[in-house]
Amino acid sequence: MRNFTAFGVLLISLSGLGLYFFLRTKDNLPAPEICFVSVDAESRFNTIHWKKRDYIDAEQFIVYRRTGFFSGYDEVARLDASIDDFTDDYNKTPGLKKGDPNQESNSYKIAYLNRNGEMSELSPYHSSIFLQHIGNGNFEWNYYKTGDKGELRIDYNLVKVNPDTQDTIPVCTVQTDHASDPDYNNTDAINYIYFVLVNSNCADNLGVLGSRNRTKSNNTNE
């Protein structure tokens, strides 16, 4: 696949002046790489992260969100090349109203435009983790998934956070898509917030991947 760049030339012919357009081909730029898709600090929106320094000729980064199981991807943001993350406020971004981390896993791709206005290939997608409490301290989630590596069978760390002290308490580490908190029904009145964490996709380990929180009192999440 090749990009085409249009340019105009003013020519004088026997029939008079005319503006003629020609196409200049350019091999596609390599696809950028997403580091990880996580959630924001309040676990309301998905966040997409990449390493901007790897694309020194980038002028803009473009973020795309999948609109449905059988459909394609909608462009949801164009960002200056100085930016290396995006919080997807699905109430404000264009396209179908997808992207709520409380409802489902969401898939994203990115691309970039260089200073000549040429578009890169789209990155492989990254699909976020959607964590659900299915009752009595039993949790399940989807494997984190990427377009080039498939489902990642790696360590998934189930943790709970005390919302008053912000202390993080490890529950267990598994390589499956489910786990249980054996102390769920034995704890005090603390309304713990649950997360699943995995290592990031970036070589310099920019952070961790987290799912949407699940609390003992949030009936809509249970």
Low-confidence stretches: 1-26, 204-208, 212-222
Question: Helix and strand succession?
Answer: EEEEEEEEEEEEEEEEEEE
State the total count of DSSP E strands.
Answer: 19
Question: What kind of sheet is the major sheet?
Answer: 6 strands, antiparallel
- Content-based structural category: mainly beta
- Helical residue percent band: under 10%
If you compute it from the alpha carbons, what radius of gyration comes out, rounded to the nearest whole angstrom?
22 Å
Tell me the distance between the termini.
Answer: 46 Å
CA-based shape: elongated
How would you describe this structure to a colleague?
The protein is 0% helix and 48% strand. It has 222 residues and is mainly β. It is elongated, with a radius of gyration of 22 Å. It has a six-stranded antiparallel beta sheet, with no helix packed on it.
Give a brief description:
This protein is mostly beta strands and 222 residues long. It is 0% helix and 48% strand. A hairpin with a 2-residue loop joins strand 1 (2-13) and strand 2.
